Amino acid sequence: EAGVAQSPRYKIIEKRQSVAFWCNPISGHATLYWYQQILGQGPKLLIQFQNNGVVDDSQLPKDRFSAERLKGVDSTLKIQPAKLEDSAVYLCASSFGQGDLYEQYFGPGTRLTVT
Amino acid sequence: GNSVTQMEGPVTLSEEAFLTINCTYTATGYPSLFWYVQYPGEGLQLLLKATKADDKGSNKGFEATYRKETTSFHLEKGSVQVSDSAVYFCAFILTGGGNKLTFGTGTQLKVEL
């Protein structure tokens, strides 16, 4: 079974530029999550989708971050414009359902460096 | 608020040594507890979990017991191997919380020959 795929694996941009990350979840997984992991910290949930609807985006900085999952499968996370403090690893995860204790499977992450 | 506190790393051990990584939590509701592991260059993987008080999660020789009275979920292994070198994250999900994980900051483990 293929795991969660993410691309690119690494990205370096200058502040005020835009960037987009892509995630393809495990086939059949209805729930998709984006986490931000700043160096030295644990992952923090940015947004959670159930199919193509948003379940929780309470910690997404909506002035600069956006995410979509138009067809309920793969997803894109965008930052526009980027700030230095956005330097982090962005993790995508998926689970079969959104109920408690459905195991979340994580992708390898995209490491973003903003200079 | 909800949070997880883990011991700071890196933790450096010799092969076959005993491992303990401390984890305590603060939760507004009733949590299920998890340990995730992140090997170099790979994504987070679920290592073990416990869903109610006094449950013991175990996997690959690692164990952790859900201690509600001390709000703790310490990770232990009797004999570590070089291949256990990784970053370990303690986390929880609140019952009815929509499967939202709250993570600790992670503890890096280095095992040397």
Describe this structure in words.
The complex is a heterodimer of chains A (115) and B (113). Chain A has no helices and eleven strands. With 115 residues, chain A is mainly beta. In chain A, strands 2, 4, 5, 6, 9, 10 and 11 form a seven-stranded mixed β-sheet that branches. In chain A, strands 1-3-8-7 form a four-stranded antiparallel β-sheet, with no helix packed on it. In chain A, strand 4 and strand 5 form a beta hairpin. The model of chain A has no long low-confidence stretch (mean pLDDT 94). Chain B contains no helices and twelve strands. Chain B starts with a strand and ends with a strand. Classes of the chains: A mainly beta (115), B mainly beta (113). At the A-B interface, strand 5, strand 9 and strand 10 of A face strand 6, strand 10 and strand 11 of B.
What's the count of strands of chain A?
A: 11
Shape estimate of chain B: globular
Helix content bin of chain B: under 10%
Estimate the mean pLDDT confidence of chain A: 94
Largest sheet of chain A: 7 strands, mixed
Please state roughly what percent of the residues of chain B sit in beta strands, choosing from under 5%, 5-15%, 15-25%, 25-35%, 35-45% or over 45%: over 45%
> Which structural class is indicated by helix and strand composition of chain B?
mainly beta
Q: How large is the share of residues in beta strands of chain A?
A: over 45%
What oligomeric state is this? Answer: heterodimer
Task: Provide the gyration radius of chain B in Å.
Answer: 14 Å
Figure out the total of helices of chain B. 0
Order of helices and strands of chain A: EEEEEEEEEEE
User: Are there runs of chain A of 5+ residues with pLDDT below 50, and where?
Assistant: none
Helical residue percent band of chain A? under 10%
Largest interface: A-B, 28 and 25 residues
Mean pLDDT of chain B: 94
Quick structural gist:
The complex is a heterodimer of chains A (115) and B (113). Chain A has no helices and 11 strands.
